[in-house]
Amino acid sequence: MKKPVTFEILKSQPGTLGRAGVIHTPHGDIETPAFVVVGTKGTVKSLKPEDMEAYIGNQVALANTYHLYLQPGSDLVQEAGGLHTFMNWDKPTITDSGGFQVFSLGAAFGKGVTKFAQGDVAPDEKAGLNVYSKELAQEHGKLCVIDEEGVTFTSHIDGSMHRFTAERSIEIQHQIGADIIIAFDECTSPSADYEYQVEAMERTHRWAKRSILAHKQNFEALKKQGLLGVVQGGRHLDLRKKSAETLAAMDFDGFAIGGSFSKEDLGDSLKVVNEVLPEDKPRHLLGIGEPQDIMQGVAMGCDTFDCVAPTRLARTGTIYANVNGTHTRLNLMNAKYQRDFSKLDESCDCYVCQNYTKAYLAHLFKAREMLGAHLASIHNLCYIVNFTKRLREEILNG
After folding, report:
1. β-pair partners for 226
2. Of 124, 218, 238, 259, which has the highest C-beta tally within 10 A?
3. How far apart are CA 104 and CA 102, in angstroms?
């Protein structure tokens, strides 16, 4: 049987692990490297699918298994015809496993821990995207218990108790119907000790085998959805390598690299992993998507990236900009932008930069007008999506 998700390399970058390729899916091709726009609940906050097509040009969107399971319910999404029909998006989609919720509901809840380890916690958002913002805390329950079979957690909506196992996560993702689904895994806190990282990694490997078996038992889903395994191991290069070797031997359609990293060691961690993973299968870096990190990820052999940062920052009035050749963030709530009639970013020709100024967006955010989040989200996503596209072009052009 022909695999529903396949990958081909068009050109490799000499001296690095970087490559430009194409992921083929039932809903179209994804030209890589590519940034995956995050639409957690079947929607990219403040944007219509038509906006993504007209203004941003992203090829693929990622939805959250945990959130769609709780609301409106994966059975309802299935009844609606699947995620693509339900959200009116006819391009490729990905769903995560819900495994990251194990991390954010459990040991790391409320500690301000990010995907990157900076000490044990991030003291403020300047240190990196703070996964545990007030907004996120309100979206998650506060109880999570992990055991060998799976995870028991409470709903952030009504406090009701729920349970995910590897098999249940795959079943839910079958119902949602994304082109690419991800095996159930345990994502650990950056501050977890080595012994626990080993324990969680080995549990992730056992859940990976169970995820493959559950996927193969649904013949209809097997024809329409590709399954990715998740490499874990925290900040430890030996564990990362071991995890990559273990998963590479399993029958996955591609691989996701999850968990937590030391920012300084991100490149080394990815290099160790991607030197082991099969070249002919796609590699997705989960939850990391700042420009510098994407650049490093591409050089180390990653093909796709997702991150909530562009839209989450946009909703607070923070935009990406290229200032003297350096990628930076500008907070439009600062007083100096109230009379700044320049475009958001002189190097950007997105719809927003062509038509609006920093002063106008600063006014929208000061006045708490919804249009501010809409326009800032378009700009930030354009910035990251097009930045990643340019990396692809550079590889193709040698």
Report:
1. 180
2. 259
3. 6
Has 96 been annotated as catalytic? Answer: yes
204/347 same-domain check: no
Measure Cα distances from 321 to 120, 379, 394 in Å: 29, 9, 20
Coil, strand or helix: which one is 175? helix
Q: Is residue 1 a part of any domain in this protein? A: no
Tokens of 299: 């050089």
Q: Which domain holds residue 365?
A: 308-398
Query: Do residues 283 and 257 make contact, with C-beta atoms less than 8 angstroms apart?
Result: yes
Active-site residue (options: 265, 306, 340, 345): 306
State the sign of the Cα–Cα–Cα–Cα dihedral 134, 136, 139, 140.
negative
Q: How far apart are CA 147 and CA 167, in angstroms?
A: 14
Instruction: Encode the chain (398 residues) as per-residue pLDDT tens digits.
Output: 899 999 999 999 999 999 999 999 999 999 999 999 999 999 999 999 999 999 999 999 999 999 999 999 999 999 999 999 999 999 999 999 987 765 666 554 444 445 666 544 333 333 333 333 455 555 555 577 889 999 888 888 888 889 999 999 999 999 999 999 999 999 887 778 999 999 999 999 999 999 999 999 999 999 999 999 999 999 999 999 999 999 999 999 999 999 878 778 899 999 999 999 999 999 999 999 999 999 999 999 999 999 999 999 999 999 999 999 999 999 999 999 999 999 999 999 999 999 999 999 999 999 999 999 999 999 999 999 999 999 999 999 98
Q: Are 324 and 315 in contact (CB under 8 A)?
A: no
Tell me phi and psi for residue 276, to 5 degrees.
-100, -40
Angle at 30 between CA 28 and CA 33, to 5 degrees: 180
**Which one of 273, 307, 341 terminates a domain?**
307
Of 96, 179, 185, 303, the catalytic one is: 96
Q: Which of 103, 146, 371 is nearest to 259 (CA)?
A: 103
| Among candidate residues 267, 284, 307, the one where a domain is terminated | 307
Q: In whole angstroms, give the CA distance from residue 45 to residue 381.
A: 12
Is residue 280 part of the annotated active site? The answer reads: no
340 in Cβ contact with 357 (< 8 Å): yes
User: 178-216 as b/e, with b when 16 or more CB fall inside 10 Å?
Assistant: bbbbbbbbbbbbbbbeeeebbebbbbbbebbbbbbebbe
